[in-house]
Fold:
Amino acid sequence: MSVRVRFAPSPTGNVHIGNIRTAIFNWLFARHEGGKFLLRVEDTDRDRSTPEALQAVLDALNWLGINYDEEPLYQSGRIEAHLAIAEKLVQNGHAYKEDKGGTGKGDCTIFKMPGKDAVYTDLVKGELRKEAKDLKDFVIVRSDGTPTFHLANIADDIEMRITHIIRGDDHVENTFKHVALYEALGVTPPKYGHLPMIVNAQGKPYSKRDGAAFVGDFKAKGFHPDALFNYLALLGWSPGDDREKMTRQEMIEAFTLDRVKSGPSQMDLVKLTHMNAEYVAEMTLDDFIARVKDVLAGTEWALNADESYFRKVAELMQSRTHLYSYASGWKYFFADDFDYEEKPVNKGLKKDGVGQVLINLVAGLEGVDFLTAEIEKVIHTAEVAAGVKQGKLNFSIRVAVTGCATGAGLYETMVLLGREKVLKRLKYAADNFCG
RNA sequence: GCGCCCAUCGUCUAUCGGACAGGACACUAGGUUUUCAUCCUAGUAAGCGGGGUUCGACUCCCCGUGGGCGCGCCA
Structure:
């Protein structure tokens, strides 16, 4: 029997990070087993399930490279089928109709639990059992005639011939109900595996308040999809050795559910960022430029930039770009109206004597070839003249020329900027910031 | 409240009874005879507590503690 798994999002426009990790584990499992990864769109909430919302979900999957097999199943088109199954259960004597709780809203259809202890073996948690007294009958069709989650869920899983259900931890208790439903229908239940949840620093479910929570947020913040995928795959799962940065293929080969941890894991944006930096550092320059330009779309100085000059800047900055969004700080390479950061200015420029040193530097830099070695010599000479230690002046010069405290190699940055801009900014800084 | 699940450095994790509990992020200290968000080196840091089982326990069992999840005509 070949493996068939599914990802079943509700198209509400956003895909939560916990849900996408579930998708990743399902996908990895399917690819590892040589099976199918299917998509089911749970669009029964007609108000929220707009075409745009569905497209957002599809975009998120596509962005992360999570491809699916076969045509998606739309749950909204299957209500008749769901109800037919409920009717069959009533006829079999496995379900009954009743005005539950005496609401006066009319009868709903209730599934009758078999009244025996339930047990199943979870692919990640092991054998789980529940006593009959803790298993209550539950509604499968509401009094307004609409099927509930439980009914729709198993009906569609049967229709899609799903063999393994890998889903969030919060569904463990439901599994006893679902298995009972399968058995009442005379269908062999699929295997279940429940994934622990992703929590925040407080141990609570990871949410929007903890920073980025939806796939789109990570894209907007400048994360590379492969890095997010890799990081999420390792949250709760490990290949068993010390590998962390892995290719898709390596993850597929190593992925098994018995290596999934059963306790919750805390999301660490700092570590994700580090992993992202590794992906960025090793990609080709062309790819890097394309991604960065995507982030910079709509930014005037970037749009108007000279191609080959932009390329040089990107080359210089790639290894220090942890997130694509860092590129928004490259403005000083392209335009003179960049912002000077307050702290570095206070620390590097607003000190006695710095202004004069910068002015002296202008004179020194006017007469030499504008190359790193020559620039270095001039700066050293200036340092000796000012009686400061070698390298001491670099920070002030950097702030004067770029407005930032950090960046690529100072001399390389100056060469790229060119003599004209450098001298102009040195003078500007001396005049405007230094005492 | 009842039921189920979980428990290794601050965080993500390795270890599936047997040598100094390993790696990564973060942090700290050096180095790269220039900054630095890159790179290199080193260091700090963990088995929740109590009982067992065993020659031997992080690993198995029990109790406690802590945390998570569930207990809807929500999904």
